[in-house]
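Input/output pair, single chain:
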Amino acid sequence: MGLFILRRAGVMLLTALCLTFIVFFLTNLFPNLEKLAKTQGDMRMSDEQVISWLDRNGYLQPLPVKYGQWLGILPGWTLEGDDGSIAGRCISPGMDPADAPRFCGVLQGDWGDSTVFKDEVSSIIGTRLGLTGKLMFWVMVLMVPSALLVGVLAGMREGSKLDRSLSTFSIASTATPEYVSGVIFITLFASSATGLKWFKGTATSAAENATFENFFLPVLTISLYGMGYIARMTRASMTEVMTAQYIRTARLKGVSFRNIVIKHALRNALIAPFTVIMLQFPWLLNGVVIVETLFNYKGFGWTLVQAASNNDIELLLACSVVAVFVVLVTQLISDIGYVFLNPRIRIA
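Output:
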């Protein structure tokens, strides 16, 4: 197991480097840098002024060099001005250049500063990720047990009326995008037009104080979309297990149907849904963009939209690193979980 984890960690590291380099390359294309210069300087800047601004801020260096400096494996750039002042990547305003560190990148915990929020990127990511984590927690609390219950009930008796009803519900929930169900919920339960204003149509206040009134609708919107997929996978796995030979043998021995489902079928039926459940974490982290924007909940997804729309390169790179890390870690946990759910699975 230890060798497997080390091997997977090496693959994860290589994958993370490749993916972050691709994102770094795309965000550092010249049109993006030109837009950044005009946003931070003056929209009427000439081409020469844009080049001068980019040069003063270290954006005209070769791409591999910039990537190495962003990672923190290469020394940060420095530039001496005409008045003798020294500026650089690792030199903060008011800092003595002699006291500045040589390396200041992601590996040193320096994620840069956001050009939109005018704050440290690490502080922004930490705050927004915490808010999305709260949303993800309550979504998983509602979505996973409900989806497993629906899938197991549907798969216990294939072809029954209960199976057809629950399968129809699962397909309908998965086929309805979040921006459709979210608008429907807001119209029905958060609008004075229907007279059923039970909830708030915005979740902005939930960032400070989450209540049932201001937090349930975004949680329900995300949960319904993911619930159908997990339920369908659970049903398919449960149906396959219920037709296995050992289940038939248990029935012939007179074991009660309840014990067959709980003690024999359920554990083996959860292997495939377990993978789907683990894949919900990266989906929740990046797929909440629509819901957080719709309900104005200022979490990670909302921050990602703001960074992309305002060409905030440092913040956008940090969001990509977090997303890549979550995807790789959840995949590793999913692989390890196979062994505990089914000891017959061997790691090659």
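The mean pLDDT is 84. The chain has 14 helices and two strands.
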